[in-house]
Design goal:
Elements (H helix, E strand, L loop, with lengths): L14 E5 L3 E5 L2 E3 L2 E3 L2 E14 L4 E14 L3 H16 L4 E5 L2 E2 L2 E3 L4 H5 L2
């Protein structure tokens, strides 16, 4: 069974992410290696942790990253949504997204384009 064929049979949990900032990128609709990719906005986020390495007696930086992908109706709308999200972050607002699971460090948003514009 491929990822495209996987369907959730029972939904016992969902994850809610509060995103405070990140690198925002628009993705134009395209076909790559015969596979279609729709328009979207991607937000690349990083959390930085520090942990004392007892052997070296140095506080190491540890980074965890997640990429959020928000599907859009078309390329123009991806630009509009990206500008809206950038404005939210610039004004200290938090973008709240709900997602089912992380696939290769990419989280697909369950919220629609219109729902995110309303935030």
């Amino acid at each position: 069974m491929t990822k495209e064929e996987i369907k959730i049979a029972k939904h016992n949990f969902a994850s809610i992410y509060d995103i405070k900032g990140g690198l925002i990128k628009t993705l134009a609709e395209c076909t790559l290696d015969g596979k279609y990719y729709g328009s979207a906005v991607r937000i690349t986020t990083r959390n930085l942790y520090q942990n004392l390495n007892k052997k070296t007696n140095f506080v190491d930086d540890i980074e965890t990253g997640v990429v959020f992908r928000i599907p859009c109706p078309n390329d123009k709308d991806a630009g509009i949504l990206a500008a809206h999200i950038r404005n939210m972050f610039s004004n200290g607002k938090i973008l709240r997204l709900s997602c089912d699971f992380i696939d290769n460090e990419i989280v697909n948003s369950k919220e629609s384009y219109d729902e995110i514009l309303a935030q």
